[in-house]
Request: fold
Amino acid sequence: MAASAPILRLEGKVAIITGAASGIGEATARLFAAHGARVVIADVQDELGQAVAASIGLQTCSYKHCDVTDEKQVEETVGFTVEKYGSLDIMHSNAGVVGPVEGVMDLDLNKLDRALAVHVRGTAAAVKHAARAMRARGTRGSIICTASVAARQGSLGPVAYTVAKHAVIGIMRGAVEELGAHGIRINCISPFGVATPLSCSFGGMTPEEVEARCCEMATLKGVVLRAGHVAQAALFLASDASEYISGHDLVVDGGRTVAMTSAISFAAVD
Reply:
């Protein structure tokens, strides 16, 4: 009996993924391309981004230098994508930074401004210009923003990162009705700890050390959360499998934030 052809969940779609030269963004770019999408990797890590695009295949993947804190570069990336591929169906706003790592009493507000510029300004710019392009072409697109479990539970990230990721979810919630009027969906993904180059640089740890630490904290045992798991969540939100899902924060944490909240509530009852 002949094997059935694989289901390509994004066949004919065009996607931009910011911060896709490594980590979760890279895993998502590879998965989207494997499911038939043409992908633009938007990042500031030029050598890495170009290498990832080449390894995926330059017929289906391109690299575009894009600093998301510069709105003009985001707008140019959207324009480049539409001109090259003829449309824009998916925007995954994923670029981020971890620092600053100081607590609020020692927080350098200039560093806080930088974190907000990347996460909040960058997300707002990505949503703004992707939505404009989708509206102009009548595309029932999907916009995905990478948030974090730090936006759901305190002490899961540095204060600046926690503030920024709360704002990312705020952008999604604030935009859902406006974009919905044009048939555009917008959602967030909030992962637990993943051993990416960014998270490893945060504590100067190896990927194995980051994974071990996250596994110690995890509620769901026997599974190590990796970038590929988060990419699968992005694939679901990008595809027609989620065509009536908008305004949702898809948490990929093995139940950790639920368990922490339950434990706090139980302790309060006692």
Q: What stands out?
A: The longest strand covers residues 185-191. Residues 109-137 form the longest helix (29 residues).
